[in-house]
Amino acid sequence: MRVLIAEDDPTSRLMLTAVLKKCGYEAVSASNGLEAWEALQQSDAPRLAILDWMMPEMDGLEVVRRVRAEKAGLQPYVLMLTTKGEKEDVVAGLEAGADDYLTKPFHPAELRARVDVGRRLLETQDQLARQVCELRQALDDIKTLQGILPICMHCKKIRNDKGYWEQVEGYISHHSEALFTHSICPECMQKHYPEPSSAPEW
After folding, report:
1. What is the maximal distance between C-alpha atoms in the chain?
2. Percent of the chain surpassing pLDDT 90
3. pLDDT digits (tens, 9 = 90+) for 95-118
4. How far is the C-alpha of 151 from the C-alpha of 168, rounded, in Å?
5. Are 73 and 46 spatial neighbours (Cβ–Cβ below 8 Å)?
6. The pTM of the whole model exceeds 0.85
7. CA–CA distances in Å: residue 130 to residues 67, 123, 133
8. Residue 121 burial (CB < 10 Å; 0-12/13-18/19+)?
9. 155 versus 32: which is more confidently predicted?
10. Who wins on pLDDT, 168 or 39?
11. More confident: 193 or 94
12. In three state form, how does the secondary structure of the chain look?
């Protein structure tokens, strides 16, 4: 997973990059808030971001606010990492939209654990999103079978969505998970397989 590091101090940025790479993450760096905001606007933006609070161009809180104001697309997991450690600061960061808050100086093991939490949460969100798509597709299939079906009054074939006529079994099999087994009703049995009449007695 790619992780955005927005940190204006070069030493701290290098240290964060080294910790993340050691944990198997790919680090993407930004040296100020504006660069971080632009990186998060890209189509391939990192899903997880570590933001410093006090940065030039745009501070971390403003970056978070802008990210949360964006309603379209998947939201990134944001971890604020800053020297501002007062309770009021933590509350302000979380209320701005940060998912987690960690103060400097940080312990590498704690940072890794918190990033891992964010990764697991994002993976769960992705799994739920896939399940919602599957449910929507299933609902669309059900609605297809609930609509009005053009059916031939003679041969009983159904006209599909592309305008072609196909057997009822094929149409229903394509739009549902129903399986067919063929049998014969009593009327057709009598019509197509009549019992032979008894020979007259002389």
Report:
1. 117
2. 53
3. 999 999 999 988 999 999 999 999
4. 9
5. no
6. no
7. 23, 11, 5
8. middle
9. 32
10. 39
11. 94
12. CEEEEECCCHHHHHHHHHHHHHCCCEEEEECCHHHHHHHHCCCCCCCEEEECCCCCCCCHHHHHHHHHHCCCCCCCEEEEEECCCCHHHHHHHHHHCCCEEEECCCCHHHHHHHHHHHHHHHHHHHHHHHHHHHHHHHHHHHHHHHCCCCECCCCCCEECCCCCEECHHHHHHHHCCCCCCCCCCHHHHHHHCCCCCCCCCC
Contact 43, 71 (CB under 8 A): no
Q: Are 13 and 29 in contact (CB under 8 A)?
A: yes
Angle between helices 10-22 and 108-146 (to 10 degrees): 60
The two structure tokens encoding residue 52: 């410093």
Interval 19-47 mean pLDDT? 93
Tokens standing for residue 161:
């969505």
**Number of Cβ within a 10 Å radius of residue 115:** 23
